[in-house]
């Protein structure tokens, strides 16, 4: 087992957290091909992203209270098993409806890895040190959305859309083996009392009226709304409108993800000097200024969208 406070443990937790962006981003170059193979519309294919996000949100609500009672390690291992089984079914799906449904289950498993990896950090550290560890994990995890679309583009070109899910099964096996062999139990004191939905609801109600929590959630929501609008639309716009190949699209997408990695690493350095609140404030203000500049510019994609709402291929 890895010792708390070591970089090796941080690396393992980062690897577990990376399953989320890998699962979201690796199959993006294959979205148009999935629509063709399963005879599905663009909206139906995009629902595979929406169902994943819904399952991811639902999983986060449950994993924390459950792991508070039985420990982080066994819940992470169970989540990895659920994720692996669902990913196998995704690779074998023969209809878009099955793929949409199983992506929800896949997200339930993937959510456990991300939520409990971060919970383990909170078990071991507090305050600025916890912020530094989470930022360091974020900068390491940011490699996943950089390499995932590029890998997915190569797999799509060489083997088809199912290959991305097959590789995710391999990642799940590696992550599960590493967690089973190396991950220590980080929960020092388990919650007392039986698990109940009423008690869990009371805990979440107390959080939802906390102004500091709501302020931070608001920042995250407004940021990620734009991010996932890009994730859902980019494969179809970049490949369907601009005519990029899956491999080139993966490389283009990776360029944006590289900016996220640089930002996460920068935050891990700034938070030790400026503290959590000032670092978050600087990031939020900078994001607002960049968004305003983009909105005022004549964007090439919006310039090609006539009043009917249908994009035209560039001439």
Brief summary:
81% of the residues lie in helices and 0% in strands. With 315 residues, it is mostly helical.
Low-confidence stretches: 298-315
- Biggest sheet architecture: none
Percent of residues in beta strands? under 5%
Shape: globular
Class based on secondary structure composition and strand pairing: mainly alpha
Alpha-carbon Rg, integer = 20 Å
N- to C-terminal distance: 59 Å
* Strand segment tally: 0
Helix content: over 70%
What is the number of helical segments per DSSP (H or I, 4+ residues)? 13
Global mean pLDDT = 82
H/E element order: HHHHHHHHHHHHH
What does this protein structure show overall?
The chain is mainly alpha-helical. It is built from 13 helices and no strands. It has helices at residues 7-25, 31-37, 42-70, 72-92, 96-124, 127-141, 143-159, 162-182, 197-208, 211-241, 246-274, 276-296, 300-303. Helix 11 packs antiparallel against helix 12. The longest helix has 31 residues, at 211-241. The termini are far apart. The model is unreliable at 298-315 (pLDDT under 50).
